[in-house]
What does this fold into?
Amino acid sequence: MEIDERVGQFRRVYAALREQLDRVVVGHDTVKDQMLATLLAGGHALVEGVPGLGKTLLVRTLAGCIRVEFRRIQFTPDLMPADIIGTNVIEEDERGNRTFRFERGPVFGNIILADEINRATPKTQSAMLEAMQEESVTVAGTRHRLEPPFMVVATQNPIEMEGTYPLPEAQLDRFLLKIFVQGSSVAEIVEIVDRTTARQTPTAEAVATGPEVMSMRALVREVPAASHVKEYIARVVLATHPTSEEAPEVVRRYVRYGASPRGAQAITLAAKVRALVEGRNNVSFEDVDSSVAPALRHRILFNFEGEAEGLSADAAIEEVLRKVKKP
It folds into this structure.
């Protein structure tokens, strides 16, 4: 199949997925695009917003659009790692011989909703690390592979709310994008009420398969990025570090650690998805700029002074994009 045909097929499946999301989820257009970008880039998403904004509905609807296995894990303070990845159980046969059998946990699915992940303790949160990075879990020295496509979508409440534990930095870095879910407008709330209080509520139909998603992911990896575009991405990432020559004043003064090289990878992959959605087989500066905030906002750590000032990572990223000149 020619590259133009593959790009056209990509856009058709993307449009079908987006249409199904629009049937169920009112508004949040940017959130939907970023969620689909995460899926097609082969990454994981961290979705943040106060309760009741439709975060769980969005993930459940996304899973319903694809013929894959969906699993939901409700994170609570008493959840243990074995409740997520599974454990070995003893079985006894008719002769009295005992053997171990691995009982799979809910992480053995394709799209995993880690609901309110920051309600669980850091020990339990970290149980997702190997699954997210290696797409496998290890129990009692035995490695168990997870079936592709595999994607974790973790929802969390703002960390200022009671009963939450901040995610470890190592785990935050495993999320391709951090997606903010904002409140709805008056018209959107009215539409939500109409859809959810009528006799029938809209549901999503499966319009794609797991192999199609894997094929789309492969195409994303083939999209070229020119050397000057990749250089720009690298400079943007380095400008989030306070020791960088291109770092703006807000970064030099308030940031303790900047984004890692995974941030550059996340920007590049998200930009490649956007390029394909726009019908192009190359990455533009506009693709990069639109991908920087969701790719880096969870990878910037403020110092004490920055936290005291209540600065947002998005504000620092805006200054970075303003300071770093395009080649």
About this structure: The mean pLDDT is 87. The CA atoms of residues 183 and 258 lie 29 Å apart.
